[in-house]
Design goal:
The chain has helices at residues 3-8, 13-20, 35-47, 53-62, 64-70, 79-108, 184-193, 210-218, 249-255, 259-265, 318-328; strands at residues 115-125, 143-146, 151-162, 168-175, 200-202, 222-224, 238-239, 245-246, 270-272. The chain is an alpha/beta fold.
């Protein structure tokens, strides 16, 4: 399967009408580029690992096959128009696009969701700490919390993933000092709202609590969560220092599928970066799956890939959806 086939697969009337309504149709002004073509160009950017909007504009200008795959003719947009596109779409439209594409993958059977894995990862904020040592100086939405190595200033991305296809089903972005357990039930509610009837929920020992297990059982799912290392419960599922699950064989085999949520989250670990202080944090949003912020064309060296959009966070993994989704559907690699 080539890139053009992947981009052509999102030609839906509902999505086209949703994007077209954001632009003027009559009146003064130059006729805008097709919003669907602009969105395809953003997807192309993630699929081809193009690092910035400037590089994307140059690629479309000099690569006629790429421009044709997105639906552009002789003329292609400049890099500034991609910034205007993301500002015009906003959080709500990105969320609707995410749900539309995810619903299509569910309908095609590429994503089943019978086993859901829940986990979170941290994102370091590109800001210094304020005098209270709790918030960010130029990023007031960021909080000081526990990271991979000690305490850090940033955010946490909480994700519920399909264990078989590794597709993100639900997500939430929160300050780094918020406990992971408080987002367990809201994630399951979002997954159930999609019509996914999951049978088991996988999570690490950080989610080990009676309320978390009861929340999973309330949806008719089996909680596969190891107890903490200091627990004295016999014959319970435990994970040792070697990261090997020990306990009942069936539970251990189920828990090993939890790594499906680790792989999509690995590229998310990085820096939440914004060029302008007033645009930092989830309120302005981060650009999907690229090492630069939503609405900006520059990127910080070493920043990793993540998509966070919106005031309270809307994460969408375009690259992960299409790569993993089509592969699991038996449609081949890109």
């Amino acid at each position: 399967m080539n890139i053009k086939q992947v981009l052509d697969s999102i030609n839906t009337r509902r999505l086209h009408s949703l994007l077209t309504n954001l632009y003027h149709r009559v009146g003064p002004g130059r006729e805008p580029y097709s919003p669907l073509s602009m969105l395809k160009a953003q997807l192309l950017k993630h699929l081809l690992r193009i690092p910035s909007d400037r590089r994307l504009a140059l690629r479309l200008k000099h690569d006629r096959k790429a421009a044709k795959a997105c639906g552009f003719g002789k003329h292609t947009p400049s890099h500034g128009l991609f910034t205007h596109l993301r500002h015009r779409l906003g959080e709500e439209t990105y969320l609707r696009v995410f749900h539309d594409l995810l619903q299509r993958l569910l309908k095609l059977g590429a994503v089943k969701g019978d086993i859901v894995a829940v986990d979170s990862t941290h994102i370091k904020a590109y800001s210094q700490r304020s005098m209270d040592n709790r918030t960010g100086r130029s990023d007031p939405d960021a909080r000081v919390g526990r990271g991979k190595r000690g305490f850090m200033l940033g955010y946490r991305v909480h994700t519920a993933c399909c264990a078989s296809s590794e597709m993100p089903l639900a997500f939430a972005v929160a300050p780094c000092n918020m406990n992971d357990k408080s987002y367990f039930k809201p994630l399951l509610e979002k997954v159930r709202s999609l019509g996914v009837r999951f049978k088991a929920v996988l999570a690490d020992a950080q989610y080990s609590s009676m309320k978390v297990r009861e929340a999973a059982e309330a949806y008719g799912a089996e909680p596969v969560i190891p107890v903490r290392k200091d627990s004295r419960v016999r014959d319970a599922l435990k994970v040792g220092k070697d990261f090997v699950a020990r306990g009942a064989r069936r539970l251990a085999e189920l828990f090993n599928k939890r790594w499906s949520v680790e792989r999509p989250l690995q590229p998310c670990e990085g820096v939440a970066y914004a060029r302008r202080p007033q645009a930092q944090g989830p309120r302005a949003g981060l650009d999907p799956c690229v090492p630069e912020l939503h609405g900006h064309g520059s990127c910080r060296p070493g920043a990793r890939r993540i998509l966070i959009i919106g005031k309270r966070g809307v994460a969408a993994y375009f690259s992960s959806w299409w790569r993993g989704g089509f592969r699991s559907a038996g449609m081949g690699d890109l």
